[in-house]
Design brief:
- This protein has 346 residues and is α+β, with helices and mostly antiparallel strands.
- The protein has 2 domains: 152 residues, Aminotransferase class 4, branched-chain amino acid transferase, N-terminal domain (D-amino Acid Aminotransferase, Chain A, domain 1, 2-Layer Sandwich), CATH 3.30.470; 162 residues, D-amino Acid Aminotransferase, subunit A, domain 2 (D-amino Acid Aminotransferase, Chain A, domain 2, Alpha-Beta Barrel), CATH 3.20.10.10.
- It is built from 7 helices and 18 strands.
- Helix 2 packs across helix 3.
- The relative contact order is 0.15.
- Bound molecules: pyridoxal-5'-phosphate (PLP).
- The site of pyridoxal-5'-phosphate has 12 residues, from helix 6.
Length: 346
């Protein structure tokens, strides 16, 4: 794998979402019942045993967050404490030893600082995407938790999700489930994503941007998209998002629930969203770190497309939520207490 190009040669405004081997990543090891301090390394290759549980038994979890360049050249992290806490929970679910949350945040900051030249300039819409990852390693063969683990944080610059302004796309429902009723849906674990590749591929081939999964027990309620939670806006100024034990607790979702209430004066509601009752919504979208908000033009269900606001234009509430959240992330709109952490650069 080739090293990342020199920052001065990168076309920041036209980056996609692609892996890049940046100069530095953080790597820590767990053995004999404790984590070492970890350190920055230039080696992008993990050297692990063929018996690693992360390879065979899905003992692997991860996170995704971004660093944002502000107008005055500083670098913001958006709620990294929430990613640290969510990874802690994912680790508990897979019997993995959580990396201490304060050290998680310090590791993320050290990776951003070491690769600061790769944080895209303000105004290009680009960000530095960070991928914390933990896997069980060492010589194992039985289905048991590993005795040794690796925790790493690597990074790459990624482009603005929308180049020509926020635009809606259509989503479809699927016969497949993303998660079982009491399974691992609420944890950010590798196995959830392996199983989503086939339904995601079928949706793309049929012309949809992603699958909206239905609840695995009854297939009557909306759960979430492949990598984003769902929201709908009602005629009565409610911001509605599904409540379920088998969806990933999206940090973007909790942020928008707050902003809908405090910045837009809406009523935040977490509850059931029945797939045959979509008329209650005037606008809908999918929300997550990658897209911030992906407006949903329509959802296909039983061969019928239910269109919300428009298949081509973003609704006014969705646009306002998008502008408010991205404004906070890039430092242009005042953030609620504790949402932004600066990366120390000297
Ligand atoms: C399945 C799933 N749902 C929702 C999200 C959105 O979560 P967040 O807003 O924390 O990025 C993600 C991405 O992390 C995801 O993978």
């Amino acid at each position: 794998m080739a090293k990342a190009p020199e920052p001065s040669t990168i076309d920041w405004a036209n980056l996609g979402f692609n892996y890049m081997d940046l100069p530095y990543r953080f790597l820590a090891h767990y053995s004999d019942g404790k984590w070492d301090d970890g350190e920055l390394t230039e080696d992008a290759t993990l050297h692990i045993s063929e018996g690693s549980t992360g390879l065979h038994y899905g003992q692997a979890d991860f996170e995704g967050l971004k660093a944002y360049r502000t107008k005055n050249g500083e670098i913001n992290l958006f709620r990294p404490d929430r990613n640290a806490a969510r990874m802690h929970k994912s680790c508990e679910r897979l019997l993995m030893p959580a990396f201490p949350e304060d050290k998680f945040i310090a590791a993320v900051k050290s990776v951003v600082k070491a690769n600061a030249d790769y944080v895209p300039p303000y105004g290009t819409g680009g960000t530095l995407y960070l991928r914390p990852l933990m896997i069980g390693v060492g010589g194992n063969i039985g289905v048991h938790p590993a005795q040794e683990y690796i925790f790493t944080v690597f990074a790459m610059p990624v482009g603005a999700y929308y180049k020509g302004g926020v635009t809606p796309t259509n989503f479809t429902t699927s016969y497949y489930d993303r998660a079982a009723p009491h399974g691992t849906g609420q944890s950010k674990v590798g196995g959830n994503y392996g199983g989503s590749l086939l339904p995601g591929d079928e949706a793309h081939k049929a012309g949809y941007s992603d699958v909206i999964y239905l609840d695995p027990a009854t297939h009557k309620k909306i759960e979430e998209a492949g990598s984003a939670n769902f929201f709908g806006v009602t005629k009565d100024n409610e911001f509605v998002t599904p409540k379920s034990d088998s969806i990933l607790p999206s940090i973007t979702k909790y942020s928008l629930l707050y902003l809908a209430e405090h910045n837009l004066g809406m009523k935040p509601v977490q509850g059931d969203v029945f797939i045959d009752d979509l008329d209650r919504f005037t606008e809908a979208g999918a929300m997550g770190t990658a897209a911030v908000i992906a407006p949903i033009g329509g959802i296909e269900y039983h061969d019928k497309l239910h269109v919300f606001y428009s298949e081509t234009e973003v609704g006014p509430v969705t646009q306002k939520l998008y502008d408010t959240l991205t404004g906070i992330q890039f430092g242009d709109v005042e953030a609620p207490e504790g949402w932004i952490q600066k990366v120390p650069l000297d």
